[in-house]
TrEMBL record:
Domain F-box as annotated: residue spans: 8-57
Record protein name field: F-box domain-containing protein
Organism encoding this protein: Linum trigynum
InterPro entries: F-box-like_dom_sf, F-box_AtFBL13-like, F-box_dom, F-box_SCFL_complex_component, LRR_dom_sf
């Protein structure tokens, strides 16, 4: 805001790039409104390289909102390329076709501003949020048609249908975050350069992740989400995080992670498989299949959270369940493991790590000097 009489307007004294960064956290219409604060701010908004397209004026009509956005896009400086677009379908009311028309207009505007900056797209980060699951195909086509897929590094999608893979490869993309999306077996076929992949609350009958450059993979299941089978093959993957609702389900995860350094598995553990269509023995072996797929890890964190933890006793604790599923002569597949940590949510009963479990994880590595294991309690919600 403008300085009062006798005060020093230190905010306005900041360099343009700092002020542009501050403004980039506001929605685009609010950024324009800062032009009335002082003479210094009159044209600052025109050079902000970030477009946050969501509806601030909830009482204004859809037509009015579209007119405002169209006008400000035309008034933006053509000397500064758009580097980031955050497009939220949830924040303003309109038909799906109207929303896509707006999205396509924003993509074209970002492309046209790139023409005055040496040509080629300068869009590095794109986020699209939808109120309900919609098909990503048309949006992918718009991104490709405006050549943004050549520069795009980070893509974040919420509630999108990606069962059909994008029509063209996003070869420059290095980070992909998907929330509550529907995935198909070939969803990731056209993202060959991914280094970071996060999946949260996604649904897939047959999840296949194969990335030659993938370094970090994070899979977080939510209540009601489901990944029925999982195949991951990533020769350079160093870090793997999995949070699931009882991976003892009857499935057969296949993990090929030769360069794995650190793995974190967080399990919401049910004490019974009644009604799930499979036996406890089948479920326990499936859990061991998941864990054995992490055998190249040097550091492993296991976090168990019982579904009915307040009524748990040591008799039916997850570690006791895991211990009972191991045979007396079970061979440890963990040939590089140095550190094992087992965590529980605060409030759950105190547990010890059964000897057979320790042996399964720690006896496979020839280097016994630096090994360590422990048990911790953490404050964390599933």
């Amino acid at each position: 805001m403008a300085a009062a009489a006798g005060d020093v307007d230190r905010l306005s004294d900041l360099p343009d790039n700092i002020l542009h960064h501050i403004l980039s956290f506001l929605d685009t219409l609010s950024i324009v409104e800062t032009s009335v604060l002082a003479r210094r701010w009159r044209s600052l908004w025109k050079d902000v390289p970030v477009l946050n397209i969501w509806r601030k004026y909830r009482n204004s009509s859809t037509f009015s909102f579209k007119e405002h956005i169209s006008k400000l896009l035309s008034l933006r400086s053509h000397h500064v390329a758009v580097a980031e677009v955050n497009f939220d379908y949830c924040r303003w009311g309109a038909t799906l076709s109207e929303k896509f028309e707006m999205f396509d207009s924003v993509m074209k505007n970002a492309a046209s501003q790139s023409q005055g900056n040496g040509g080629g797209s300068h869009l590095h980060r794109l986020s699209i949020v939808s109120p309900s699951t919609i098909d990503f195909t048309d949006m992918a086509a718009s991104i490709v048609a405006n050549h943004h897929h050549d520069s795009l590094k980070t893509l974040k999608l919420m509630r999108m249908n990606l069962v059909s893979a994008p029509t063209s490869g996003f070869k420059s993309l290095t980070a992909l975050e998907l929330f509550d999306c529907c995935l198909g077996p070939n969803t990731f076929a056209n993202f060959p350069g991914l280094r970071y992949l996060k999946l949260q609350g996604c649904i897939s009958r047959n999840l296949k992740v194969s990335g030659l450059e993938l370094v970090h993979l994070e899979i977080r299941e939510a209540h009601g989400s489901s990944i029925r089978s999982m195949e991951v093959s990533a020769p350079k993957l160093r870090s793997f995080f999995f949070r699931g609702t009882d991976p003892r389900r009857k499935w057969s995860p296949v993990l090929n992670l030769p360069a794995l350094d650190h793995a974190n598995v967080h399990v919401l553990w049910f004490n019974s498989t009644n009604g799930f269509g499979y036996t406890k023995e089948e479920a326990d072996r499936a859990c061991l299949k998941l864990l054995s797929g992490l055998h190249n890890a040097e550091s492993l964190i296991l976090c168990f959270d019982n579904y009915n933890y307040k009524e748990d006793t040591d008799k039916n604790s997850p570690l006791t369940e895991l211990n009972s599923s191991l045979t007396e002569h079970e061979v440890s597949p963990f040939t590089r493991l140095k550190t094992l940590r087992v965590r529980y949510r605060k409030g759950s009963p105190t547990q010890t790590i059964p000897y057979r479990v320790i042996r399964y994880f720690m006896d496979g590595s020839p280097n016994s000097v630096d090994k360590s294991f422990g048990i911790e309690k953490i404050e964390e919600k599933m």
